[in-house]
Design goal:
This protein is mainly alpha-helical and about 80 residues long. Helix content is about 45%, strand content about 10%. β1, α2 and β2 form a beta-alpha-beta unit.
Length: about 80
């Protein structure tokens, strides 16, 4: 697995599975670094009030944006 303390770069992964595993490591490292006093870049997804399929589709797009911009992804689902 790649070093989790580097900025996340989706272009270096050949499959979605390896990319998600690397992002999970990046996410965990970023949360621990934030507790150590480093600033945390985040993207918070708040779904609209339409159907579940629309919410999941837009959540997938928001996750991709978070991955491509090296941000920690959170969901505020009410």
């Amino acid at each position: 697995m790649d070093c989790a303390d580097e900025p996340f770069d989706a272009k270096r992964y050949a499959s979605a599975g390896t990319m998600m595993s690397a992002y999970a490591a990046f996410h965990a490292y970023s949360l621990s670094a934030e507790q150590a006093g480093r600033p945390l870049r985040t993207l918070v997804y708040v779904p609209n009030q339409y159907g579940l399929g629309n919410r999941l589709r837009s959540m997938k797009s928001a996750l991709l944006v978070a991955m491509l911009t090296s941000r920690v992804f959170f969901v505020d689902w009410e």
